Amino acid sequence: MQKQIMLQINQDLLKTVNHISPFCVVVFDQNGIEYFDHDCDTCQILMDDIINNNYHNFRSKITEEFTVVDYHLEIKDEIDKWYQLHSKVIIFNEVESILTYVLDITDKKLAELENIRLSKIRSLMLEVTHSVVNNDEIEIFYSLILKNALLAIEKSHLGSIFIRRENNFQCISYVGFDDSVMDFQLPVEHSFLYRATDGAMDYITYLNDIQPSDLNYPIKIDTGEYTHIRSSLSAPINISGEVYGMINIDSLQPDAFDESDVKSMEFMRDNIEIAIINHLLFQEKTQLAKYDRLTGLYNRHFFEDQYEIIKEKGLRYNETFNLVIFDVDRLKMINDQYGHFVGDQAIRKIALEMQTNSRKSDVIARFGGDEIIAVLFSSSADELQKKFANMQDKLLENPIEFFEEKIYCSFSFGIASFPQEGQELEVLLKIADARMYINKSKRSV
After folding, report:
1. With bands split at pLDDT 50, 70 and 90, how would you rate the model's confidence at 52?
2. 338-374 as b/e, with b when 16 or more CB fall inside 10 Å?
3. By the 8 A CB rule, do 372 and 297 touch?
4. Contact 45, 75 (CB under 8 A)
5. CB of 415 within 8 A of CB of 324?
6. Homologous superfamily, domain 7-104
7. Same-fold call for 111-289 versus 300-443
8. Is 420 exposed, middle or buried (0-12, 13-18, 19+ CB in 10 A)?
9. Is the pTM of this model over 0.70?
10. pLDDT at 1
11. Looking at the chain, which terminus has fewer C-beta neighbours within 10 angstroms, N or C?
């Protein structure tokens, strides 16, 4: 293959190129700069920081065709600038030299970095969004929000999420602080967010030189030391148009954050608000799926699922328990005479009495209509008889007052023992139900 002859260029030709080219032009050889545009600030920077004394580095990378060489520079006003160098080996003044066109690609590079930053944040926030579905524990959810927020904002040291409780902010999750922060009640008007927004709390604030003062409390960090926050990013969390809480990303160093961090925080805040709304909806749906709306007890579907778990555990570990069915006495008469509103009050009153007198391990549910069902541990049938008698006495002492009338509530019940009298729910329920009606008939209610 025939070797390509190097282009020969003189100074007059370069001056002509300078007039018609939008790019800075530099020529240098191993002895230094041979030609540059004296009116170009960029050329001056490049000569000082890159080109001078770097001939051999360039020559090793450049073929006879144009090659792109990327350099990153920080100019004296401390704004990052990026330049791209297009270089070619030429003959200049009869000496092998390098001709370089200089392109300012700062806007392109900043756009690329912004896309990388947003991509990283989107990925982190996607993990938060997925956690709404995979976790019903709010503590895990908030902890993940903070962990990912700190990963997204590189110069951060500490993070916290506060929920508004009337006139105070209450910490519910934190990173980098001592555990005692959970007991800290921060008056709303003392928060950086409130003070920086003159009480509006309607936009993200960043403070970069916070001085110790009466309102900049010394905080205890996870190393046990007391120190002061010097920089803070604070974003309000708005749910249904109200300030639900705030997320704070803090640093122990001054001047830790900039406008790009505010943009990151804004993107995260928007996603966090959506995630919290979804989480609250998820909790509400979970509540509806497990609990009876009228009484607050478990519903029948959830109880039946739980019974299967309890049964398997009981058979495996040779455990015993009692299944009890309750029926509200005279509910039809109460509904007919006083209305369903009072009838619902009677059901709720008896349900509350049962919740109050149950153990944490007991499982109580509204089985349907006026029936309540329970799995009760650590009590014999005789002990339960006495317990229910005491409950009846308390109900009679505290009737429902409806205008000038007093409506007395009571219940009938039947007990079946696991596993002595059966293992399946249907079997035990049939036994307990029969005994309940015998109990009801004896009491003539």
Report:
1. low
2. beeeebebbbbbbbebbeeebeeebbbbbbeebbbbb
3. yes
4. yes
5. yes
6. PAS domain (3.30.450.20)
7. no
8. exposed
9. no
10. 39
11. N
